[in-house]
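stuck on this chain:
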Amino acid sequence: MKKVIIISTSLRTGSNSDMLANQFIEGAKAAGHEVEKISLAEKDIKFCKGCLACQKLGKCVIKDDANDIMQKVLNADVVCWATPIYYYEMSGQMKTLIDRMNALYSLDYKFRDVYMLTTAAEDEPEVPKRAEAGLTGWIDCYPKSHLAGTLFCGGVDAPRTIEGNQKLQEAYELGKSV
């Protein structure tokens, strides 16, 4: 059994990326894993100040929700990020959280497998590539981990337009394969 953390970064109720995350969760649970979903919708996450105190303290000096999330990521075997694509890139709130998890760099992290689920109004295959590159930039700082899988669903814009899409089943299967 693995400990799986899913970070849903969309702030929109009924978001398509969150629906992909929910299917990934169901698949991981069906495989017998311990699963926790973290939604950024109600979280207070401030911008990194670049003070680098986290490298000495093992946590950020800013008092908000980022340290609690970071602790969960630190102790997870698997991390799955779910994000809408805005202007061909990950959501700003996802990038802000990634920046704030800088303290992980000097800690003994457990995660090895990292997944990324993305959705966008545009549906060309190259749409998620910049977001994936941004996430792999973070992963590259943790040499024991790797990008284990990605799933992109394009052509979905308004809330819940992903309903009935085959990509939901693919997200379930990806979660089950963890």
User: Anything to note?
Assistant: The chain has one domain: 3-176. Helices lie at 16-30, 54-57, 66-74, 92-100, 129-139, 166-176. The first strand starts at residue 3 and ends at 8.
